[in-house]
Design a protein that fits this description.
Length: about 300
Amino acid sequence: MVLEVSDSLLGVLLASVAAVGFAGQFLFVRLGTESGKVTDGVLIVLCCNVALLAPPALVLYSPPYVDLFTPVSVAAFGAAGLAGMFVARLLTFKSVEEIGANLSSPVIASNVFFATVFAIVFLEERLTALHLAGIVLVVAGIAVVSWETAADSSGETSLRETGALLAVPLAAAAAIGIEPIFISIGLAAGTPTLPGIVVMATTATVAFVGYLRWTGSLRSIPLRRASTGWFVAGGVSTTVAFVAYFAALEVAPVVVVMPLLQLTPLIVVVCSALFLPRRLERVTWRVGAAALVVVAGATLVSVSG
């Protein structure tokens, strides 16, 4: 007997896997940065992305592989990799190290706000009432996170310093928000999704290694440290999330996939409270409420796009 699964149900399952995978990245990185360096984490995760994505692409597509690309698609996916996998990931990991996973994830979920702005500016899309309502909710959620960030510092952090702390995850959100613009250009140029993601990951890895060499901080990664294991787990988690996310969009409508994907901040908050030691994460009801508000706002923006 063969169990048949509808495309919508398969999309729900894949989107759920993606949400859990993206949440796992926050949690594993938080554990890794307790004793490891952010730059090591970014490099390990990028290498995991390339190692796990390149072989399937080589198997699923026939040579010559250059026929899969055009100059426009390579440039577009390369730019997406620099923005989303290099800059955004470096800022995300730094934010997780500085203010924690459960405070970082709702702020970074505001990337849908930036994606909407970029789509209006560059793709000439229109702002709808649902878009506006979603943006208001996202901003409200981030305001609560700002309050909690200040409170978490026991009153020792000024408003300006709190703003500086939140500038890092907001910058990460902006970098993630521009990523879909480049991806849409690359896909429109005729390059399939998986080869495009490989170009993204490879470009980001090469650029990050170049950045480390330029800053004089390139060094061998300690393989036997616990932090390395957590970073590898984060790399596997985010790779699975990317594959599941794009696969979900191929079999189910955006209105099915995106609301589930926006559950990532809530999953991070719940898992932080259940599994992470209190010395790493302080989860309050206000953080949970903020995550819920951001999820609602991000969902409205996503499904109305």
